[in-house]
Fold these 4 entries.
Entry 1:
Amino acid sequence: MTAHPDPQALAQAVAAHMIAHDPATRLLGMELLAIGPGHARLSMKVTANMLNSQGVCHGGMLFALADSAFAYSCNSRNQATVASACTIDFLRPVQEGDQIIATASERSLGGRTGVYDIVLTNQREETVALFRGKSYRLKAHVVSG
Amino acid sequence: MTAHPDPQALAQAVAAHMIAHDPATRLLGMELLAIGPGHARLSMKVTANMLNSQGVCHGGMLFALADSAFAYSCNSRNQATVASACTIDFLRPVQEGDQIIATASERSLGGRTGVYDIVLTNQREETVALFRGKSYRLKAHVVSG
Amino acid sequence: MTAHPDPQALAQAVAAHMIAHDPATRLLGMELLAIGPGHARLSMKVTANMLNSQGVCHGGMLFALADSAFAYSCNSRNQATVASACTIDFLRPVQEGDQIIATASERSLGGRTGVYDIVLTNQREETVALFRGKSYRLKAHVVSG
Amino acid sequence: MTAHPDPQALAQAVAAHMIAHDPATRLLGMELLAIGPGHARLSMKVTANMLNSQGVCHGGMLFALADSAFAYSCNSRNQATVASACTIDFLRPVQEGDQIIATASERSLGGRTGVYDIVLTNQREETVALFRGKSYRLKAHVVSG
């Protein structure tokens, strides 16, 4: 990797590295749809083993999808970054078989912290949850040059 | 179930019903340690398939544990209740093999909404995350009489 | 007011009523710049009596500006609405003399709850804080017909 | 100030310095009731100019009280500290004349960040709001030796 790589190529290299080493994202069957500097889009199909006792998708599964989209977007500049705090608003119940898409975008980046918004929509393009994550940058890279 | 059941017995009956119908909680190997009116304690062992690309526990798995503890505590009075919003602060990385305990307690209950605090600790009794959930009560019961 | 008023005219009538009866907004010298269905824009000049002991603007004053923008936007359809929960991320210190603008927009509205995002920027168009508010609709109107 | 001052005496010295230089806290008539390492208690009487257009206390005024209690508690060890993010849940309306007490306690402190919980109660000891704040420590002291 060169000293000044193309930001889009770098984001793709980081995402390729991440997805090859990401058991939890694989466990839940998430798929990376798009990646770029500061943004990412993932999808997840809600399966029977993701339901809670009320017969709808467990909030933790929706959070996990949003959190993965957050991770892919905030690491996309090859600065290793962790989540320090997140909030999620649940707006609509999600059913078995629903295809949920999480779209992450960067709202703020300065110093070592950033704020990212993730919108979760279903296959009818209804918003099912809104997630906001605060990132903290470590002093390390995701992929080496 | 009688019209005025013992609150502790009711909480146990509700939890027994929930845990028998809760695929996501089972998928992640959660165990219910304690239940009572307005409180619950669950544990989860972090396995290899819960890790993220940084080699630590995915935030979504920790959120899921907290969210389950939240659900068991806020449904414990046999009022069907859903999460409307949650926040989580991640304080320490969690490793494969760690045994995480989520302890939920009711901070406020009035009208149809409640606020619950869930503390996540590891096997060294270090706090690894703090979760706060807002509940919204539906017009239904969890178990019938 | 007619049964089906123009939404923009209704938003203006609601805002005019609110601002005439809003001591806290007046105390802090806020000014309403724009109003419409689901959105609002307010400004506030940071004065010496809004500073904290570190010599920068007290977080409560910035929250108050965001909260007012939230209130004007979520009441703009003449449904009396209250804040149930809010989060704020502070991104940059705000100095005496800074002119802060809060821009509120509706992210979700369904049933009796809504989610609103408020962005606070300074006179250099830098984002100084991000606020997200959850609203709960009462069974009342702001202005009568 | 000695190299190893008594923590309680240090907390009092810090608070005395802060309160002498805190215009916003004074503007809203807040009073410091108690201070110690990692905790603080402040009170505020709700006056007519703190009301919003619905005739109840403006959320920004309650947030400001909680935020001040947060600031006094997280600076109490003489490490200059700022708020990075806060959440507040509004539980009950607050009326003119109510005497609100904010009690801040430290939930977590590690590295440069901490988490503080602030409970707001009225004169009937009802909880009116719950606030959680995340702190970030600067490389400076509040008072010098």
Note: Chain D has one domain: 7-137.
Entry 2:
Amino acid sequence: MLCKQLVIITGPCWRCRKFMKLAVTHVVGTGDYNGPDEFSKEELNMARDHGVFIKKQYSQTSKEIYELLPIAFNQKQVVEASAVVAVLGDLENIRMAEKIYGQAVDAGFMPADTAKSMVEHYTGMYSSMPPEAIRQIAYTDGGLVSMQLMLVTRAKGYDTVPIGGYDKQKFMEAFRISERYIPIMLVAIGKAAKPGHPTVRLAVDDVAFFNEMPKE
Amino acid sequence: MLCKQLVIITGPCWRCRKFMKLAVTHVVGTGDYNGPDEFSKEELNMARDHGVFIKKQYSQTSKEIYELLPIAFNQKQVVEASAVVAVLGDLENIRMAEKIYGQAVDAGFMPADTAKSMVEHYTGMYSSMPPEAIRQIAYTDGGLVSMQLMLVTRAKGYDTVPIGGYDKQKFMEAFRISERYIPIMLVAIGKAAKPGHPTVRLAVDDVAFFNEMPKE
């Protein structure tokens, strides 16, 4: 039996970013969500009774937020944050080599023939690399980029929540992301509603070793 | 036929970090390197003729440097840098959970029962996770850590060279690293001998998209 739910969450307005109650109907076990423009009269009344402000232009584009909530295992930061950046790895990044080295030539940083031989070198290298090695590079580079993103965000006065635990398969489907890309992490960004929990770090002697690994 | 080479490189003294000529003999095609303490008289003379300062205590501990040079496909930063940090990923990182949460309890950041249930939660989660998912986390977290390492290093007035292209299998063997760990990257650290090459970045519109991917 199909079970239909009326879900009400507090999320940012897609236009003014203010928090408001948003409603959506959801057929349990599916990825189908309907906004208020597709509600029955009974559903509209039920939502209004729960304090949802029904106005078509404010709710119609919230599909991504509703979809992301169950995908992120209901971690509420994905709907409460001002923005969520999904960091992706490009498995065909080598296709960008010509553009990047072309820009380096245009900027006067590199002679054209050096750029040409670099592009040839890397294109050859990538074409002979096992897919697993390319994925490893994408995961590591994704970590490098994510750290920069979080530190730059913090430097601008915002806070971030990196989210590694989410349903990556469903995320790729919901946002129709091509297989060229792999999901790295979600980074929720916004003004912190309250300070983060304080955390500890292992001592450097627990994680760093000189020339050889300690015996376990 | 075995071919023996006398290799002379300029590398930092293991003790005073000053650059000096270092010699080693190497049987081509093998990982066997011998320092001056195992040189024949002829080899000693040949090294001296090329300006190598032969003194046992200065050359005997350079094994790691000699080994790392061919492993890093002869990228000279690995021998010229003041230090090389090999960033590793720990595939059994969950074994540290109890220690980390214990420190959080000791610091007064978390009640003991919360820590206990977190450790149980994550231990259960990791034990049911496919090995490939754990590796992906290690590669991404390795990227996060490497970026922090490079930025902290830079903030202290040093420069870095991240090296992703090296023989990871040989690296693991040469430094006898257990299979618990996976190699992420090498980070050469030191005072820059000359400024780095200027580089370009793709425009944000080339790499970031709002809500959906552009059609290719």
Note: The domain at 84-190 of chain B is CATH 3.40.109.10 (NADH Oxidase).
Entry 3:
Amino acid sequence: MTRPSTHVDAARLWQSHLSLARHGATAAGGVNRQALSDEEIAARRELIAATRDLGLAAFTDAAGNFFLRMDGREADAPPVLTGSHIDSQPTGGRFDGAYGVLAGIEAIRALRASGITPRRPIEVVAWMNEEGSRFAPGMMGSAAFAGAAELSAFLTVTDASGVSVGDELARMQKAFRDVPLRPLGQPVAAYVEAHIEQGPLLEQEGFSVGVVTGIQGKRTFRVTVSGEEAHAGTTPLRGRRDALLAATAIIQGLSRAFTDPDDILKFTVGRIEVQPNAPSVVAARAVFSIDLRHPDSARLRSLGDDIAGLSIDYGRPCEVTVRELSCAMSLEFPQPIRDLIRGRATDIGIRTLDLPSAAGHDARFLHGVCPSGMIFVPCKGGISHNEAESATASDLADGARVLADVLLDLAGN
Amino acid sequence: MTRPSTHVDAARLWQSHLSLARHGATAAGGVNRQALSDEEIAARRELIAATRDLGLAAFTDAAGNFFLRMDGREADAPPVLTGSHIDSQPTGGRFDGAYGVLAGIEAIRALRASGITPRRPIEVVAWMNEEGSRFAPGMMGSAAFAGAAELSAFLTVTDASGVSVGDELARMQKAFRDVPLRPLGQPVAAYVEAHIEQGPLLEQEGFSVGVVTGIQGKRTFRVTVSGEEAHAGTTPLRGRRDALLAATAIIQGLSRAFTDPDDILKFTVGRIEVQPNAPSVVAARAVFSIDLRHPDSARLRSLGDDIAGLSIDYGRPCEVTVRELSCAMSLEFPQPIRDLIRGRATDIGIRTLDLPSAAGHDARFLHGVCPSGMIFVPCKGGISHNEAESATASDLADGARVLADVLLDLAGN
């Protein structure tokens, strides 16, 4: 037997990234392929067409997750899952998410080429709405699949133009009438997700593959500031309840309160919406997001718990309400999966670096239902969530090689 | 001869406000009738239809201003102009702007009823884009008419969805193919604009009519903050150039720097747009408006001149550019026009209060080309630029009575 890793083709894998990146391609060379959009529908069609020769069965579920299944020798055995997501940020790159799905397909292609049918089925999954930029929070599909959240709670979430997740899921199902709908939350034997690092470590240290030790915790919030609309020329400042001014006071206040000399805490306000958002009208309402991350769960908990009280203080005289959208404490992947990834890499001469994930991933939720792990590959300058996101064909292939051999090990030869 | 003021009909004038307010009516009882919108087109149609019995001629010009002309005995004499605007803020009221146009029409109706044809023509004008909320800056139509700005400079201004003033002007012209286009900037004998006060003084002091002494100065700016897009989970805070965080630092910094113990200075940031505006992406770009007003021109000049330097300082490490969109120093209307308004009011038993205008008006630009003045009527609680904006039929009628007699005086009996 030849290891499946010997059949991974770097040029073919690279080409599959370029092909997928046509769906939602931006002028600056990035991708705008937001969750449940026309672009994502087209990208899923491409995945089906591009794998037709592999004899995979496509499935979907009520949460809009998308699976490509390679049958195993034991039809009823819970599958080994691999994959990530193909939705992107509004100005995203070609590799974030897409790599995990395309590396999974390349691994199956390599398995086929090696002539092996493993004991368990292997499924490549594209989870619904990992990014959370069109519909907040992110990772809806994997959360619903793993039972970490109720799908029903996501259905009424709307995007900036008022379109709901529920409506878009129905549209996605209609677009794939021929793809069978499976019950949400199948048993899974194991989950391994390949992803670009989205940080600088692998590149700086000269490794092509990283073994992810765990995922940094993250809490997200929506802060709503309610003031009173007024005329900018006639209303004395003392009589105003200016929602935009109050929102900026809250953001600056929290930013100062959360100053971390060690620069480990991540505090980000990436989104703000103001009403009526007119130059000569004192704003009646401002709504902004908070993304708070810290690898230490206790710190993350206490800092996040301070947000509501501080926001109310800094936001006076406006009314402030703070709603927590998601709360995920830091986690460690099980040692056996990390050892397996490191071991299969070593077997084929690839050196690995152990490192934590600063970004959140769908593997967070799968971790709750099956042994899970992640494989990182470097990305240029650690840059992601950016049209300039970049990776090398050689690094991508190294990650896919390790993944192919790991999947075989987990699925059983 | 009976004075035209005796023919002003409070109920009819009130009804004309309700009719016009149907165009762009909001659920909360306000108006969303932004410049050059479908709603404004429909409202202009209504003005033509509602005045058909008065034998007025409609005209427009390249700047999209809209005129209804009552001929005088001397066809070639420069007309007396009255009016205001019928565009509104996105969540505006039923009286701001509309009152000046409808009071002008009511005055002409009263003149017709009194059987008088004055020596000069009288024209009621609805200026294009006074509000400046869809397209910044405001008062485009009157500025272009008065030669205070080049129309060509406005044509490329776009709204939030990328539609330009030039395109919308062409659409407006097409919608009124039957309305003759006059050269921009006709000679004008005098201009009187009626408007709600947008402040609390008349109501507090118990006057139904105010003689406006002048207009508070106003400068508007657009501040562009350029940072770098980055992943909210992986990018250390020290390495970030967060455009949204920098924008909030600038807004808070300016707000502190501009603290005025006398509460006369008005500093407003009413609008902000962030890119990509996604919760887990460090913002690459933030653009916000500044509206700065002060009745003392020297103070206004020096404060406004500080904005660029302060913004660059507060906005580090992002790049900040500040562009001034409009600069209008404080002005005083000529004493003879103010005396005329006060005199005609006194003649018919209406007491007046002299007061400055804190808000900007199209009369600012007409002041540069002809003797100009303004008549204020109270609005409830001084509230405007708000769906709750309100005025009484009786106060509106008092203003129209004074306007009718003033117009006759200016046009010559």
Note: Residues 217-328 of chain A form a domain with the Alpha-Beta Plaits fold (CATH 3.30.70.360).
Entry 4:
Amino acid sequence: MRYELYYWDGIQGRGEYVRLALEDAGARYVDVARGDGGEDAMLALLDGRRVARPPFAPPFLKAGRQLIGQTANILLYLGPRLGLAPASESGRLWTHQLQLTLADLVVEAHDVHHPIAGSLYYEDQRREAKRRAKNFVAERIPKFLDYFERVLARHPRGKPYLLGRAVTYADLSLFQVVEGLGYAFPKAMARVARGHRRVIGVRDRVRERPGIAAYLASPRRIPFNEQDIFRHYPALDA
Amino acid sequence: MRYELYYWDGIQGRGEYVRLALEDAGARYVDVARGDGGEDAMLALLDGRRVARPPFAPPFLKAGRQLIGQTANILLYLGPRLGLAPASESGRLWTHQLQLTLADLVVEAHDVHHPIAGSLYYEDQRREAKRRAKNFVAERIPKFLDYFERVLARHPRGKPYLLGRAVTYADLSLFQVVEGLGYAFPKAMARVARGHRRVIGVRDRVRERPGIAAYLASPRRIPFNEQDIFRHYPALDA
């Protein structure tokens, strides 16, 4: 199977969680909207009258004739196929539950710099962003990372991933979230990291996985930037 | 199977999406935290050291020995068991995709009155809420409802639900979202309803389903209120 991923060019965004799974597994895929005419092809699928099951927004994945939208849903589909989720139903639901919790954190990380509206510039909601950032950094980052630390602490040593010994797409996504938060809020994360050694451990181990290391060193990995979900605005890093 | 639902008493909240599915199907369930000592039982499962797969937050469902968190994930599990999702994998993914899109709208509906922080009072973020509400009502409600209208318009007459002829938990959730938005933003929704007859049609049909009609008439249905996700603050209904 050659997968087709559709996501905006120029940012990691929510497409990145899918990319990391495909790259870790060495799957064959095309990042359609980053090629010539790719964005038009993406928009045609979003708005096309003949698309029976249209996605609400990118990212979406074309797998044969199937079109699958919503990041966590794409990973739910890909997980067992790429060897990045357990075979059992209960294991797949648990992996997905962790992914949805990470997705909640991603929404909040975005809304820190866009607390009023995604369609307004950051510059037009700077004051509100500063207020929201204060709370996000003081309460929300610790609350979420405490949770993942607690999940990891359930396992004995030698089982360093969220589900235990085997890596899943939720670990790859945790890597991305920790990297993103570290980019956006370097001061805050330096403080928070101390109390979350197991979470940081997942980040470090994922970074060194062969497929991920090769991907991060390649031009396919778009650098973090200030059009993206994780943005480094020093005023928000309290 | 007798299911145990765990969710905060006094609000519909995210627990309501699970309740509607259980009620429509006539499933046996206990709404644990609404009974004597139920909230303590819920908190024990959230924080318990012996819980192998702890949820991040309510709602969560106990099904035999399985503990399942995240609203959309609970419905993913219940869907085929309650006859509220198709049997095929592609049909189940599509239903789930629609549910996740509704979940995105629910986050935004909540953040209208809490744009700065969930841990602050509405009164402490009233000015920001007014700004966010303006955008939510003008752009976001129409964008989401346009999408569901478009999905419904894919079907010929006589197939009035999101997936066609058969009802799914996504229809029940769409009912709840439209009811909630109508409660919170009656003026705005009166305007929006005109252009979204198919969406309103799903709302009306779900309301009349026997299990749902009985539930809505019972004391089990908690009234909308201003501690909940959908809140009626006239200042925000522009």
Note: Residues 68 and 214 of chain A are 27 Å apart (CA to CA).
